[in-house]
Amino acid sequence: MSAHAQVNALDHHHDDFGHHHKETFITKYVFSQDHKMISRQYMITGIFMGVIGILMSLLFRLQLAWPDHHFTIYEILLGKWGADGVMDPSVYLALVTIHGTIMVFFVLTAGLSGTFSNLLIPLQIGARDMASGFLNMVSYWLFFISSVIMLCSLFVEAGPASAGWTIYPPLSALPQAIPGSGAGMTLWLISIAIFIASSLLGSLNFIVTILNLRTKGMSMTRLPLTVWSFLVTALVGLVSFPVLFSAALMLIMDRSFGTSFFLSDIYIAGEVLHHQGGSPVLFEHLFWFLGHPEVYIVILPAMGIVSEILATNSRKPIFGYRAMVASLLAIGFLSTLVWGHHMFVSGMNPFLGSVFTFTTLLIAIPSAVKSFNWITTMWRGNIQMNVATLWSIGFVSTFITGGLTGLIVGDSALDINVHDTYFVVAHFHLVMGISAAYGFLAGIYHWFPKMFQGRLMNKKLGYVHFWVTAIGAYGIFFPMHFVGLAGLPRRYYTNTNFPYFDDLHDINIVMTIFAIMTISVQVVFLYNFIHSIFYGKIGPKNPWNATTLEWTTDIKHVHGNWDGPIPHVYRWAYDYSKLNKDETDYVIPGQDFIPQDLPLMENEDELNH
């Protein structure tokens, strides 16, 4: 059956699908198969995990700024690892490890993509739901289980995983290496294996839905850029995540079954272990084959969200739609060819290093195309400076400033000098972490009415949230570039043993003060978010005057999205600034946009008829 035939069949069965059977509390709010509810489940779980990850960063920032100070909060939160208010050195690396893991995988991958892919794909392509509601539900609950297991690893006797979020062997492969190499590392691997299963199920569902369930008239060239970004993200995840799964499986076998995939000639306390023939560099190749595409799995959905919001709130058609689509596809393809730039100091052949340098610098071209098109979309636009617009402009800013330093870490000759310093930390936090978080927040503010019965978040609190966060984020990570260039190494518990770094200590204090400020203002967001769910102002059906199909659905949610036939599509997603009638388009008086479901009209008489 063709895609359009499937859509028409769903239209004919509207009474069964639109209103659906009567649902209990469990089937509606817990084991829901409705993509909108699953979207909210992903979002709330992602926000909860984000709070934990951010609080971890506060703990180790306090340690870096005041290494000799006794903090009561360490005793309260860390127990035996924070006796007398002093952080145990071994738990410092564990906090860095779990912070990185939670933020990269559980917040910026599942939280961002799981929320907005689930919410927007069916609504924007004109589908009743995902291709498989059941697999969608299973995908979320696997994500939830993996989150629980990761959090449980914080409470094991020997401590959570402590090999860094990249879990390089031998620390991750030998249970006896350090305290965090024991049960905590095992739980980390189990959690990630389940997470990968969740991501693969979600990716398959997204791809099949986009390719097969588009409404009549919704050609690929009429898709909003959000949907294109979700499609490319799912394709990249489908290619790269199984590689990490294989690496995790081999790591489990090295740990528990005596194999030697990643181990060779290991000595512990003078004892020669039986491992031989393996290579830890093999693990680096497998990890980074996922690890660098993962950067784009994180950032691509944010790119799509920002493209949609900037076009809508600039009241202009997106500049260079086809170039934007081509750049998304180019980024997706090239992201699988650049993993080696993480390994320039691993003994890589210089010729191979030059190949990875070339592909890394090449991927800057489609990224620059997107940045140029965002700026050009805003140029001379009638910009509606609402909260979502501010987060989107903030995204463009951090993506450009963070991306420029990528030219340094992507060049083999330059990267060797800054590898494993705070320069790298500053780079990837700005270009990936902060930028993706801005995209996540922009999407929440923009599509909040679609998720919560037409309610709007408080605009004034949103402005406070944005400006304090934006200033604080640059206050943390901009100075970090300079301490990195000065040679300050990352992941060190304290630098007081190195007199060379004494002059940098005050900068660490400044960065920590900005971190405390930035983390504190997230309380404003949490209050605004929770309060607005129940008491937010009810907005109009289409509060942003957008053209895409999700705003044609009623504020009252039904399982099936449209309480009636699915609208057909007659035009692309960015018909803004249509102030005059021409031969094919009729503009409704007082509107500067034409919705995608408005038919092409020759004249006003035909419209009135």
From TrEMBL:
Main location per UniProt? membrane
Keyword Disulfide bond listed? The answer is no
Cellular localisation: Membrane
Q: Which residues form the Cytochrome oxidase subunit I profile domain?
A: 25-567
Report keywords, A-Z: Electron transport, Heme, Iron, Membrane, Metal-binding, Respiratory chain, Transmembrane, Transmembrane helix, Transport
Q: Name one Pfam family in it.
A: COX1
Q: Which GO terms describe its molecular function?
A: cytochrome-c oxidase activity; heme binding
At the top level of its lineage, which domain of life is listed?
Bacteria
Which membrane topology term applies here? Multi-pass membrane protein
Q: Where would one find coiled-coil regions in this protein?
A: none
Q: Where are the transmembrane segments?
A: 42-60, 91-121, 133-156, 187-213, 225-253, 286-307, 319-339, 351-369, 390-410, 422-445, 466-487, 507-530
Q: Which GO terms describe its cellular component?
A: membrane
Q: Name one GO biological process term.
A: respiratory electron transport chain
The protein's matches in PANTHER family, at most eight in alphabetical order, are given as:
CYTOCHROME C OXIDASE SUBUNIT 1
Record-stated family: Belongs to the heme-copper respiratory oxidase family.
Q: What is this protein called?
A: Cytochrome c oxidase subunit I
Q: Tell me the organism.
A: Aequorivita ciconiae
